[in-house]
Amino acid sequence: MKLKTIKIAALALLLSGSFAACKKDSLFQEPTDAISDADAYSTAARIDKAAIGMYDALQNANYFSGRILIYADQRGLDATPSTYFGTMGSFTTLTSSDGTVASAWQGAYRTIYTANLFLKSYAANKGLLTQAKADQYEGEAKFIRAICYWYLVNLWSQDYNFTADASHPGVPLVLDASDEPFSSSNNLPRATVKQVYAQMETDLLDAEAKLPLTSSDAFTKVARATKGAARAMLTRLYLYKGDYAKTVTYADAVINSNLYSLNADPKTTFTDPYTSNESIFSVAMSGGDNPNTNNSLGQHYGTNPGRGDISVTSDYVALMNTATDKRYLNLIKQYQGSYWTTKYSGLTTDFVPVVRYAEVLLNKAEALARMATGVDATALALVQQVRSRSNGGLLVVTTKQELIDAIIKEKRIELAFEGFGITEFNRLHLDLPAHGIVNAIPYGSNLRVFPLPKYDMDKNPNLVQNPGY
Amino acid sequence: MRRFLMLMLGMLLLSSQLLAQTRTITGKVTDASGAPIAGASVQIKGTSVGTVTSTDGSYTISVPANAKSLVFSGADLEQREISIGSQNSISVSMQSNEKSMQEVVVVGYGTKSVREVTGSIAKVGGDKIANEPVSSFSQALAGKTAGVQVNLSTGLLADRTAIRIRGVNSISSSSQPLVVIDGVPAFSGNLNGFNGGNGTRFDPLSLINPNDIESVEVLKDAGAAAIYGSRASNGVLLITTKKGKKGTMQVSFDSKTSWATATKLPSLLNGDEFIAISNEKTTNRWGVSNPSFATPAKNSDINGDGANDRTNWNDLLYRTGLMTDNSVAFRGGADKISVYGSLRYLNQEGITLKNKIQSGQARLNLDVTPKTWFKAGLQMTYSKTLNNGVLSDSYVTGTTVSGWMAPPTVSVYNPANITGYNLTSAGLLSLGNNTPLQPGGGSLLPSTAYYYNVLAALNLNRNDNTATDTRINVYGELTPIKGLKLTSRFGTVYISNFEDQYNSPYIAGLGVPYGGLVQDQEQNNNLWNWQNYASYDKMIGGGHKISVTAGTEYQKRTFRYYYVGANNFSDPFFKDIIDGAYTNTLPGSSTILNLTGGDNSSNGFISYFGRLGYSYAGKYFVEGSFRRDGYSAFGKKNQFGNFPGVSAGWEATRESFFPKTTWLDYLKIRGGWGKTGNSAGLGNYASRTLYSGAAYTSLTGLGISQAGNASLQWESSEKTNIGFDANFLKNKVSLTADYFSTNINNLILAAPILYTVGVPGSSISTNIGGMTNKGLELTLNVTPVSTRDFNWTTSLNYTTITNKVTGLVPQNGNADITSGVQVASVGKAIGTYKLPVWAGVDRATGNPMWYSGTGAIKMWDFATQKWLDDKGQQTTALSSTSDYVYLDGKTGLPKWYGGWDNTFTFQDFDLNVNIIYQGGNYILNSTKAGMLTNFFSNNFSEIKNRWTTPGQITEVPKLWASDNTANQSSTRFLEKGDFARVRTITLGYNLNRSLLNKWGLSRVRVYAQAFNPFTITKYSGLDPDVNYNSFSNIAIGTDNRATPPMKTMTVGVNVTF
User: B616, B587, B582: which is closest to B5 by C-alpha?
Assistant: First the structure.
């Protein structure tokens, strides 16, 4: 009997002993197929990966995959409107329920969220990084945030000078990744256009201060943010505000860095590996980045191969001397009775051009031309530089206005299909003439800006819809 | 309750004092083996005076002089009446009560006598399950017990089976019950991974040998199931496998052979009809202005036999599937050991060509009792199964898509093709002389991917799954003192599936474009589960019985899969991944394709559970159970949940004050309430904020892929159950009735978040929705005839259920959640149809008509391609927002269902007839809608009823090429799903005992069985019981091209030595 008691006690002890062996940690394991938020920024290497993750987010299929450039151009005169993108190209039938517009808005804020989340999360672990790396990442986050807001404020709002003090509605300024996604504190009202521009300016200036000047690696020089990229974007921002002196200041900073130059052939910029000295910042793409190949620039603009959604208007072709201009000869093809751009012929691998050297030269030219009292010789030389590269012919201007008009026309030829289709018309307060099946849309029309998505309008009582939607 | 009992007791004592006390009788109550019975009731007949036996079985009672006899009764005991006479000492030996009452049921972490059960538990015997020639035991539960509804997805072998216990209990999560085999949770779901697992679905429950099952207990209410905590909301199936029986040693051999055909195949147009109908479609549309497009359907002679090709695709794709199922089992036990072992080889052909399962299964269950205080044992099973799957619904190459739609006027074969099949260079079926073109260059085909030569695809492609299933449980049980048991059980489950898909370079889809493609995927499921619990049963003097169970359970499951692929083979000879035989580039390209991938994840449970039962005098039963469940997938703030359950029973017929009648033998009233959870289908890391790989061209990065919800928890379900069990007429009739009410809250739904917040997917899984299920279950068992030679037992069960959605996503204005044309909508039953109402075919024009939301006619005018109102004026198109209406009360879920089982025995013959039925549901016959297409396609022969002449009354509109407006989902295709089906008719003959003795056999039975021989239904589709969407909580009821189930004839023999 006693032996039995001992045996039972021993077995019971064995059991209770092994109870303790079952630790919660071994049963409730941390994910093995994804890193949890607590660990995502725990080492310098991971912070570096998270910084790259911001660029992955920048490749958002509905935004900087190239779609947002397309949307700007769908509402201009040079690309044929395609029903593949809903009704945005026809203006009049666009509603706040439009899925394409809603997805673009969602994609923009999704990208901004990633940048905000990075800024918030890396701050706690800054100590793991060298100052140079910390500065670089912060600069990259702010640069990415700024270029996302660029299209938001320019496509969902009227231009900066629509009201005298830019007090008309911009877009909600989300500068922090919310910890409580359901909280009503997320119901932000629309900031004014002035406030949005001020934020982009702050972000770009901060980025300009913190980003590295350039990189010895050709890919990194173009595909990741640099001082040059921030400066180039600042020339655009100041030009759109009408602050011409600052446009010149930052254009000079880009030019004098001697890092950038025009390619002899305009086609080179748009040819693999897409990292020539003319590209200042592009969103890099590879076949693997486009899991849904229906969202790449090459699919939409390309034909044979490519979906061939967007052909080029004859209005655009008529801007050039088709006998000599390389931008026609090397960048336009004819196929099945229509014109097509060959800027994006890599199907799914074309980089998305955000800002390039030719634009900086033209921005400076326009700023100088506008500040001068007569015909500014430097401005004329700059625009001629861009024009001559493509064999566009010699410009002859006699008045200041002729020079400005020539620069604007040159810009339209040079930067076509790169996301300026409607923004330039808005900035210049120009009416959109009737084109194709689209009636004339005068400057200031409610139709010239996108509606805010119904999805957000229904949930956020502080949002005010654009008039007319 | 306890107080109530004390009060009752007091009253009893009080009343006894009022009687004259003349004499004291003492004695002892023992069972058949002489062991004392505690808590038995001893009562003076005709009075309420009585006592109960103490722990040693003894009693003392004072009886008045006029007392005639004493009545002895107790739980599970047959009542005895002993006349007092002049005795002063009366000791009785009591027998266990009639058979059904001594039955034991398996409950969570233990067993219980049926009489003590207070929750709602149904038991299905293993023989009922092994009786049916189905590919998973779960399918055999159909109609067997109240409250359980079973639907197949398709008639393909081992396809998933939807089991719904007391209705649908979720919207976005799974409604499948928890399946526990010998105490260890099993996997259910799908072993298949390619094509989102939707290629050749493979139910892991089909890997279990149904012959090994002793019983299946269905825990339906919270009283029974709450001990399974966060996984119990959908009910629990407790599978118990067979054990050895002491004192016997038997070897039995089972062999059956069966022949299966489809219950029903669609009626398709023959070649001549196809040509006429196809050309009428185009003539109606283009005949006058474009004669060259009027006759796209033409005769061809592709096989070169000199005659016009005619192909009946159904004849080629469907067959009589042969099944042979042989198993041997041994079962027995000696003093300290008992053993059960089995071996089975199954070779089953499906009704679809190439669909086949070959499975070898082995089991060993061993129990040893080396000491009186120590018992141990193990259950081991291993099986290996090859499942030759076929693609059917949802694939253009599927047997029920291209197989039904391909023109019957082209040959399957073409001797000139390298494969011998009729194929184009793109790998599609060549349409020969047919010219399916429309003016302007478009095609009359549904898309450029049509049609596949399904016979060629079945023969040249491959969709194989090879699963191995290993389960090993080991347990030890200590009994240190009487009544106390300490149990430790460790179980492991390892299921792997190797999926092997091959696409021939001659077949379109993944074949031709890839130059041949092999894709292999290995999936590994690992689970270990460790339970330690103590149970203690104690009789306390005065009829009090206490039983306590308390323990812990730990579980971990890991899941890993990886896939590899090879394509562009140097020769079609190579059909596997062979070094050097492929390039992994697209033909003509030098870019290497990445065909590898995988995932690895895990989850864990930490649980504490307990149960406290108390009964008094075999009349009053109270039980409380509790589980505290921690699950790693829940949010960190809510990782642990508490799940209580209480239930009580009162055996009224035991009360002395209960009027004694000759017709009522037994009445027990039960009631229970509890809280359970549902976590089925929740992703392992659903609550987490996650960073996944995020590449920027060739730079590797990390990016947020999911915003978590640290509060994410189980879907909670409050279950109330009230019922009774009653036996009548000398236990010849028994009736069980239960009313249940389930109140579900915290349904996990994707709550939308402002786009401007920017989280991935703009939604987060959140506990928000609510739903209720209420219903009634009735089970009636009757033995109408019971004689020496002839016996008839019959069992009928009936369940009725109503569902109501009470809440969805408030952040989204409680907007409907839609799946197909069915919705979850607040205030309505889940799965309510929302469709435009069909107004018939306009007699004058043959145009289709519907009612608008306001009840006006909207007609689609084929000729002008415009919508017209009843005055012929143009109107707006049918709108999903204004013209689709809720069809209140019409859902895909049956409102009532059940089964009726009859067994007759006459001398050595036995006959069983089993019938299942269900109804109150509606089926959207999308199969028919698709097969009445106006594309260049074969059609269901119903299309011959099309409108042709003004004034004609028909439901099939005028034909109009390439225009399927008329075939859109509407009430035109909504049908009642009511049916009654003879599930099995089994006739058996048992060899006469005298012969058996002569031959030294203990049993020989030969039988013949018809399975699914006939069905009574008004549903015009293939089968009202089989539904492509059976797994969907909302879209259940929308059928689309499901392969029909099997109708099987079986002969079998069972020999026991």
Answer: B616
